[in-house]
């Protein structure tokens, strides 16, 4: 749409001083952090230290995000989303660019962290994510656009943080913003009504994405079966199969239910991991046996049919022979 | 409190009109009737974007709506997004007028301090979620669109998932142009459910002409008819004056 006018806010050069029209605070741009649907985020220096600034074009959508951030900053106890500092307008070259200032989260993208530190982090970070989602839901919000791009792992001990709250929607409304792969509507597995199970579906898809970094497109039909197949084919996901399955089906009423089951699942996995080699090979054998069982039954069924047929043929021949003589 | 209904025409096409009235003029007429005309241009993967672009843009501009060019595979996401954005834009338009009557003629939302804008946005969000919506969908079924029609079908189903997740009521009607014998053909009369779409789509036949203007004209008439019918139902025999 307004692609040409977007450029100025999307390419603010390093060293530029962004000065607020209303609050008179000023910020010096250090570098660009990323492009969102509704604006560009920069790292900037200020008297608060390093902050992240989102500069947009449309003041309504920037304001809408500010509304959410303000609400989240009011939630006590847990840190949900980046901490919000202020909102203002920046006038440059006769145009007015709305912007807001928030905490700079100096983290690593979720998947690169898991790649670097080990697959076992996936389950643990998911536990953290589900706890935060639970807190968010209790406040009457649904995250909406949950995807790896919006998740960072920060600090030590590693903690999962979420970035973009553009999709955050009040409970019971229709989800404002979503990404197809993580959207249950796209997969034909539910509505886009903002409710806890919407986020839990996306959380399951984030885990699936971890095993399939390239993602994949939906099939023409039976997408539930298709996704379950993808889970079974991946050794990483197979460990989480029971909770993934339920999350995709929308069987969880809230995040803590899913978190609880993931927790006990992880405990099971951990005890397996502690005496790694014998148990894991045994369990592998077991699972192979399990998979082969139905095959065997099928084969024995087939043998039965052949035997029966041979038997009948034998008697029929006897009967024919009896007739001839 | 009756919140009123948003009326949209959603035009899905891939190029220039070549028959009948000027679609840009028809879009302007639709706007006069209180409808918004949104246009989505569907491109082939290796298609350049200039042909037909200007017309698509102009139709949306004079229809007070939004236009967007997309490749067929991105259509689903775009259709629901454009519809949603257009709703917000229309509502912002109302609010803008209201604000001007309170704050004075030259005042814009941007003239409010950022802290006050929050409340305005909340009102817009609330209305976008709860207002009733009527979307008349017009699909270009000319020859070049033929292989894109399955994607269009997916996109419309996707749209209905999004709209049905809202609190407000929705109604759809579906038209194709060119029709089998006429320039425009009604595929589906006003209905709150889009689910029977599979049964309609295979029947589409594609021809060489693209009568976008006449199609828009028909859409306006369809809205008028719907209105007068409703007037009859709600006000007990009273015909609402139609401006045509």
TrEMBL record, chain A:
InterPro entries: Atg1-like (IPR045269), Kinase-like_dom_sf (IPR011009), Prot_kinase_dom (IPR000719)
Gene Ontology terms: cellular component: cytoplasm
Domain Protein kinase span(s) in chain numbering: 27-272
GO molecular function, one term: ATP binding
Cross-referenced Pfam families: Pkinase
Chain ranges passing through the membrane: 301-322
Region annotation (Disordered) ranges: 273-296
Superkingdom assignment: Bacteria
Keywords tagged on the record: Kinase, Membrane, Serine/threonine-protein kinase, Transferase, Transmembrane, Transmembrane helix
Gene3D superfamilies linked to this entry: Transferase(Phosphotransferase) domain 1
Skewed-composition ranges (Basic residues): 283-296
UniProt protein name: Serine/threonine protein kinase
From TrEMBL, chain B:
Domain VWFA: 1-91
Highest taxon of the lineage: Bacteria
Name of a matching Pfam family: VWA_2
Protein name in the entry: VWFA domain-containing protein
Organism: Guptibacillus hwajinpoensis
């Amino acid at each position: 749409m307004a692609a040409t006018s977007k450029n100025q806010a999307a390419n603010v050069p390093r060293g530029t001083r962004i000065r607020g029209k209303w609050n008179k605070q000023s910020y010096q741009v250090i570098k660009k952090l990323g492009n969102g649907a509704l604006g560009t985020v920069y790292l900037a220096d200020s008297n608060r230290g390093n902050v992240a600034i989102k500069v947009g074009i449309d003041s309504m959508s920037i304001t809408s995000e500010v509304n959410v951030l303000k609400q989240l900053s009011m939630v006590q106890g847990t840190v949900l989303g980046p901490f919000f500092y202020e909102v203002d307008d920046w006038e440059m070259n006769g145009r007015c660019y709305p912007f807001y200032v928030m905490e700079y989260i100096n983290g690593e993208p979720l998947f690169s962290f898991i790649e670097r530190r080990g697959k076992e982090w996936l389950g643990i970070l998911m536990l953290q994510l589900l706890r935060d989602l639970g807190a968010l839901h209790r406040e009457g919000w649904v995250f909406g656009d949950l995807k790896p791009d919006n998740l960072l792992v920060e600090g030590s001990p590693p903690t999962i943080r979420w970035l973009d709250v553009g999709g955050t929607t009040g409970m019971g409304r229709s989800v404002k913003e979503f990404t197809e792969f993580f959207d249950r509507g796209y997969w034909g597995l539910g509505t886009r009504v903002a409710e806890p199970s919407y986020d839990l579906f996306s959380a399951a898809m984030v885990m699936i994405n971890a095993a399939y970094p390239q993602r994949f497109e939906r099939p023409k039909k039976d997408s539930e079966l298709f996704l379950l197949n993808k889970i079974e084919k991946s050794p990483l996901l197979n460990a989480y199969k029971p909770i993934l399955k339920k999350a995709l089906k929308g069987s969880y009423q809230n995040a803590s239910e899913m978190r609880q089951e993931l927790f006990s699942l992880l405990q099971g996995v951990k005890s397996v991991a502690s005496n790694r080699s014998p148990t894991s090979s045994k369990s592998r054998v077991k699972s192979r046996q399990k998979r082969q069982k139905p095959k065997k039954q099928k084969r024995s069924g087939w043998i039965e049919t052949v035997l029966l047929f041979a038997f009948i043929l034998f008697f029929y021949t006897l009967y024919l022979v009896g007739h001839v003589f | 409190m009756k919140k009123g209904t948003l009326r949209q025409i959603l035009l899905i096409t891939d190029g220039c009109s070549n028959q009948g009235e000027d679609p840009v003029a028809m879009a302007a007429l639709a706007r006069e009737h209180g409808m918004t005309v949104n246009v989505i241009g569907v491109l082939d993967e290796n298609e350049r974007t200039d042909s037909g672009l200007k017309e698509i843009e102009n139709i949306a501009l004079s229809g007070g709506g939004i236009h967007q060019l997309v490749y067929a595979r991105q259509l689903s996401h775009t259709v629901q997004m454009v519809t949603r954005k257009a709703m917000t834009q229309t509502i912002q338009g109302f609010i803008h007028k209201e604000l001007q009557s309170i704050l004075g003629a030259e005042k814009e939302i941007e003239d409010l301090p950022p802290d006050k804008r929050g409340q305005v946005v909340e009102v817009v969000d609330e209305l976008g979620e709860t207002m009733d919506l009527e979307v008349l969908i017009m699909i270009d079924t000319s020859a070049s669109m033929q292989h894109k029609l399955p994607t269009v079908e997916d996109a419309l189903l996707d749209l209905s998932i999004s709209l049905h997740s809202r609190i407000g009521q929705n109604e759809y009607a579906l038209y194709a142009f060119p029709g089998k014998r006429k320039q425009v053909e009604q595929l589906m009369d006003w209905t709150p459910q889009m689910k029977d779409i599979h049964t309609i789509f295979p029947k589409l036949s594609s021809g060489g002409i693209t009568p976008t203007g006449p199609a828009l004209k028909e859409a306006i008439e369809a809205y008028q008819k719907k209105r007068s019918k409703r007037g009859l139902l709600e006000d007990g025999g009273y015909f609402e004056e139609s401006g045509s």
